[in-house]
Structure formats: structure tokens, C-alpha cells
């Protein structure tokens, strides 16, 4: 399997979070069916199936302890946070969020209204509205799916000396 070079989202392949640093490459895949896979340097290191909102994977790979935590970032559940921890050190925090600003959906709404008016004037049956809306929603998801979601990566830059 070919692993992505950067963090990305796809409606069929799920969400990929990528951490690249020197000799360490970690790929975290969150599939849409609840399967969570972690690849370390191209090798499958851990595989867990979880349908819970908060999940935590604890595993060892090549004498290193890895922890991958996923949890909702807000109460509306429009954003999820995934933390990558190596040997009790937070390496990176990923935030996957739905874009909720109205201007992204404005062309979509204009298209629906623009198609609904002629359909109403032609007095088409009710089922045709549902078919049209389903086709437009599928087109929006498959063609413009990259603009619907956002992935933010925050590097751990804090160090505490005790």
C-alpha cells in the first residue's frame, strides 16, 4: 500500500495524519468504519477497531512506546483531536474539523435553488426533487470534498526542565 506524503482526508479512504521527522515516519489512518491503523516507517505497527468517541492506542514497536489518542475537541463534535505520543513525549497534535462557514456552502445553496425553481415551474413530481438533491449532494461531496474539512497540525514546542 502506498502511504500519503502529507495529512489528508478522503471520503472512501478515511483520514490520514502524517508525521515525518529524520528517521521516523508515522502514518495514522482513521478509517470510516472505525478501524485505526498506525504505520511506523512504512510497516503496520498497530491495528485497532474502535467505534467509541474517545480512543487510545498503546503499543510498542522497535523498543519505543507509542500512544495515539483520539477524542472530540468540542461539544458540537465538529472537530476531533488526535495526539501522537512517543516515549511519553507529545510529538504532534492533529485537529480534524468540519468547515462550518456559510460562504463555502453558498454556491451549493445557489445551485439547489437554481434547479428547484424550474422544477417547480414545470410541476415535476415530488420524487424528482429528492433525486436532484441527492445528486447535487453527492457531487458536492465527491468533487469538493477537500474544501469541506480542514486538518491542522500543531507541533509540540514546549519543554519543561524540572
List the helices and strands and how they pair.
Blueprint: E1 8-10, E2 14-21, E3 24-30, E4 35-40, E5 43-49, E6 55-61, E7 64-72, E8 79-86, E9 89-98, H1 106-121, H2 126-143, H3 145-148, E10 149-155
Antiparallel strand pairs: 1-2, 2-3, 3-4, 4-5, 6-7, 7-8, 8-9, 9-10
Helix pairs in contact: 1-2
Descriptive notes:
By secondary structure, the protein is an alpha+beta fold. The protein has helices at residues 106-121, 126-143, 145-148; strands at residues 8-10, 14-21, 24-30, 35-40, 43-49, 55-61, 64-72, 79-86, 89-98, 149-155. The strands form two sheets. A five-stranded antiparallel beta sheet has the order 1-2-3-4-5, with no helix packed on it. Strands 6-7-8-9-10 form a five-stranded antiparallel beta sheet. A hairpin with a 2-residue loop joins β2 (14-21) and β3. α1 packs antiparallel against α2 (126-143). 14% of the residues are buried. The model has no long low-confidence stretch (mean pLDDT 86).
Radius of gyration: 20 Å
Overall average residue pLDDT: 86
Q: Which sequence of SSEs, written as H and E, runs from N to C? A: EEEEEEEEEHHHE
The count of strands amounts to 10
Q: Are there runs of 5+ residues with pLDDT below 50, and where?
A: none
Just name the CATH architecture of the largest domain: Beta Barrel
CATH fold field value of the largest domain? Lipocalin
Alpha-beta classification: alpha+beta
Overall shape: elongated
Distance separating the two termini: 43 Å
- Give the strand order of the largest sheet, numbering strands 1, 2, ... along the chain: 1-2-3-4-5
Domains counted in the coordinates: how many? 2
Q: Helix share of residues?
A: 10-25%
Question: Could you name the CATH class of the largest domain?
Answer: Mainly Beta
Strand content: 35-45%
Q: Tell me about the largest β-sheet.
A: 5 strands, antiparallel
Number of helices: 3
Amino acid at each position: 500500500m502506498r502511504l500519503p506524503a502529507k495529512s489528508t482526508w478522503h471520503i472512501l479512504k478515511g483520514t490520514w495524519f502524517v508525521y515525518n521527522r529524520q528517521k521516523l515516519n508515522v502514518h495514522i489512518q482513521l478509517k470510516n468504519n472505525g478501524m485505526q491503523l498506525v504505520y511506523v516507517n512504512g510497516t503496520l505497527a498497530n491495528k485497532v477497531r474502535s467505534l467509541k468517541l474517545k480512543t487510545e492506542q498503546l503499543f510498542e514497536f522497535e523498543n519505543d512506546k507509542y500512544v495515539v489518542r483520539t477524542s472530540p475537541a468540542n461539544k458540537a463534535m465538529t472537530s476531533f483531536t488526535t495526539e501522537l505520543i512517543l516515549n511519553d513525549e507529545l510529538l504532534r497534535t492533529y485537529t480534524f474539523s468540519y468547515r462550518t462557514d456559510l460562504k463555502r456552502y453558498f454556491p451549493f445553496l445557489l445551485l439547489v435553488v437554481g434547479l428547484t425553481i424550474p422544477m417547480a415551474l414545470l410541476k415535476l413530481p415530488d420524487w424528482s426533487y429528492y433525486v436532484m438533491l441527492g445528486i447535487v449532494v453527492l457531487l458536492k461531496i465527491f468533487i469538493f470534498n477537500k474544501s469541506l474539512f480542514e486538518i491542522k497540525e500543531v507541533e509540540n514546542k514546549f519543554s519543561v526542565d524540572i
